[in-house]
Amino acid sequence: MTWLVTGGAGYIGSHVARALAQAGLPMVVIDDLSTGFESFVPDGVPFVRATILDGENLQRVMQFHKVTGVIHVAGYKYAGVSVTRPLHTYQQNVTATATLLAAMESCGVDRMVFSSSAAVYGTPPAELVTEETPKSPQSPYGESKLIGEWLLADQGVARGLRHTSLRYFNVVGSASEDLYDASPHNLLPLVFAALVEGRTPRINGNDYPTPDGTNVRDYIHVADLAASHVAAAQRLDAGVTIEPAYNLGSGSGSSVGDIMRTVAEVTGIAFTPEIGARRPGDPARIVAAGDLAARDLDWKMRHSLREMVESQWIATRRAAQPSEAG
């Protein structure tokens, strides 16, 4: 049983790949390296540099490596930027997913773990989101992830695809010092870059209807997220019952202000963030209950907010060090 990990050279995908390797599950990684790094792929794991928009190549990869399941992490993940790049977002997240599913159908690959998002909920009416909370995405990114879930569900009805979608929001931390988040849009990389360069970090809005005026989110450690992807894959391999979607949520959440205060403590750099305008399509609060995932996918918050920030700071500083090679 071999798993294809799409986007497996990226920040999240590489953590999933390493967790699969630690669990002894064979895999092949495909990534176009638009945001990932080949060095992130675990040693000894076959790597294919390619886009998942190429359906014929996907079929060749699946056939050659005898793929039986797909963990689909690849995608365009920037909610705020998606508002100004909707067509690109749909191409990368909807067209690519449909292409991937078609290749799977052609090759008889019948199981998928889909990396979805809490952005499918938009700004939910309840304080705590469950899997049954109405879906009302507020950005092309959130819409594209919801469409992806619909595609999986339709293939389940039409072709017997066994699948689950994992919904989460802000992923932080590092499970290894050589794996870091290089995103130009995610909060912690932006904050760390500013501090290293001697600039004051900037946050988007402090006038939201939250206790400190900043966005409240589930911040979850990337290693905990990866562990639940592996548990979902194992559950699909075992043929046991699995829910169509799971929230990987903290149940409580943290604000951007909480993050800023923790960054100051971890780095030892005192600062007061500059306040910018709200980002379009950015809800005030999304906090999810993770009860179903805890029941089925070994989901739990194993790391404190400080541990998340500290591990990412260590990985970021290591990445910034000049190479000793040459």
UniProtKB/TrEMBL annotation:
Catalytic activity entry: UDP-alpha-D-glucose = UDP-alpha-D-galactose
Entry's EC annotation: 5.1.3.2
InterPro entries for this protein: Epimerase_deHydtase (IPR001509), NAD(P)-bd_dom_sf (IPR036291), UDP_G4E (IPR005886)
Entry keyword set: Carbohydrate metabolism, Isomerase, NAD
Molecular functions per Gene Ontology: UDP-glucose 4-epimerase activity
Biological-process GO terms, alphabetical: galactose catabolic process via UDP-galactose, Leloir pathway
Pathway connected to this protein: Carbohydrate metabolism; galactose metabolism
Residue ranges of every copy of the NAD-dependent epimerase/dehydratase domain listed in the record: 3-249
UniProt-listed NCBIfam families: galE
PANTHER family tied to this protein: UDP-ARABINOSE 4-EPIMERASE 1, UDP-GLUCOSE 4-EPIMERASE
Family: Belongs to the NAD(P)-dependent epimerase/dehydratase family.
Protein known as: UDP-glucose 4-epimerase
